[in-house]
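Support request, please re-run this one:
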Amino acid sequence: MYPALVAVPVLRQCWRMAQGALIYLVEDDPEIRRLVCDLLAREDFRCEAAADAAAFWTLFERQAPDLVILDIMMPGEDGLSICRRLQSRSHVPVLIASARGEALDRVVGLEVGADDYLSKPFEPRELVARVRALLRRRERTGPGEAPRVLAFAGWRLDLATRALTDPAGEPVELTAGEFDLLAAFLARSRTILSRDDLMDMLKGRAAEVFDRSIDIQVSRLRRKLGDDPREPRLIRTVRNAGYLFTPEVEALP
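Re-run finished. Output below.
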């Protein structure tokens, strides 16, 4: 069905980022399941496949993965519903791989919480590159490093645990994409960042495919931060320039 998966060889790299990472593939087509799992295994990932939502949740309850590759169109619970449920239960990155590749489909996929979106048929090298990019962003502090906490406007973001707390001390759940975007803003606070700047800082995301996805992520992050989109205080839109994160950021021990 997808000859590119067979005909194009996968380029091996000398380094093995996140070697042995556990990836769950949720795909109802048995041939695609076999081809993608074989592809990932050749790249030294551990891949387990599920034909539907029920099988996926069984795997998930047994062990949380490092990344999920998710089809949208499946019998029973579809991929968008799975993605929504994952948002409330986990920070695991989600890569949607779907034959529905129109801009609107990408927008919807990102809006429900996916971290990247890849259209079928896809090149094996591109799938592997996107998987590696998502896993790299998931890694934060190395051995022996002290956790870093950044504070802004009463909020706190722990870069080691990826935990966000509001000014009242209550936890606020972030998807992996929302965390990455917020961390990018904190790293360049009080600096106007264009969409290109943000896409460069968030390499490998679906944002690099079309600018609109950056706007979607900003809109979602504003909601999580309680920032009124009509008169935002934290993330301002600068016309014809990009976005400005206005609060002062303080690094805490």
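The mean pLDDT is 82. Residues 16 and 44 are 8 Å apart (CA to CA).
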